[in-house]
Amino acid sequence: MTRILLVEDEEVNREMFRRRLTLRGFDVLTAETGERAVELTGAEKPAIVLMDLGLPGIDGWEATRRVKANPATAAIPVIALSAHATTEAKEKALAAGCIDFETKPVQFDRLVEKIRSAIEKAAEAAKAEVAVQSKSDEAPANAKTAPLRKSGGIPAPASRPLSANALSSTQILPAMPELVPVVQKRILVVEDNDPNRVMLCRRLEKQGYLTVEARDGREALEEVQKYRFDLVLCDIMMPVVDGYEVLKELKADPDLKALPVIMISALDEMASIVRCIEMGAEDYLPKPYDPVLLQARITACLDKRRLRDQELAYLRAVADLTRAAENVEHGAFEPELLKPIAARGDALGTLARVFDKMAREVQARERQLREEVERLRVMVEIDHTKKDEELAAVRSKIEELGLDRKAAEMRAARDRRRAEREHRPTPTAETRILPKFNSEETPPPTAHK
After folding, report:
1. Mean pLDDT to the nearest integer, 20-41
2. How many CB atoms within 10 Å of residue 48?
3. Could you write out the DSSP letters of every residue in 370-402?
């Protein structure tokens, strides 16, 4: 049964919503305040939160921001409920992290439809994220295990992320896909001071992150070559290899260029801040840093990294779809190439499913045409064979009757007669023989003039 957290401070409305949602088959949890809503969201992990905005204590906007700031609950969709349907209230709710806004009194059927749609989208996005994460976390056979601060945690080695340059040849600018849910992220903490490093790792673990430690820049560069990280927190002043060199090496590598880096240092100088930003650092925090500010900066960096990973996955899918189209054009369709794309829940997945159906139909038509051509070829061969058999039978009958011999004799006689005519001499006046008459016979009459 799908679990919903209903946050409503008015008892009558809360009970009415609870009963109606229960009748629709939902398991409904309730909270009266924003603080309680944040607490229940983290403890119960509901499929969706219906958040009233006008709450005592912290209001619905602040409660939503806290839910979205926690990596463990950031993926849970939140729908705002409010009697104040102003443009400012809606924009503020969406900016806080709500996916939709419903005005009170609500149209219950429409609200239920929004709830089901949001849950389905979150589930599809979660599957896509798990697929991307599991693919990137495949470990090589000889991978070395990195130390984790989190108790019982084992880091999953992963192949390095695909470079953006490797996909630039597609020359396609896709529309931004939907946000993927936040899963537990791995952060590399580079700090030469042991107490500072331990304290920072513990604080990050309490916020739900996995951490890997590096005591200097050389260790950091080794770790990023072996494992996939979502963020690097790097000190500047370190022995062996300092933070500037680490940042330079990371940004020079096409496969690691997209990895966000936040520089942390006791050097509170504008020149140092400018230098880090110009070298490609995502942000800069001076020591001692404010924990709330650090958390906000980390959340922002991870959101950007998640969007970047989503964009790369989208471009990979577009490249695979383009390659499938090229294969169809050359008469070699590969259905397996489209299966991961067709499983997507966005417009690209729809396009892949339609393309797969059309390609299969084209294949079926081509196969039918080949069969028809083969059938016609066999028929033509049969006709030729039958004609040859009939000619052979006629020749056999002619030989049997001797007609060919008689025809040859007739042709020979014709040729002889023709030759005789051609070689017979033409008679002259001297050689012409006149008829003889007896004297007693009456001569032939002469013609009178």
Report:
1. 91
2. 22
3. HHHHHHHHHHHHHHHHHHHHHHHHHHHHHHHHT
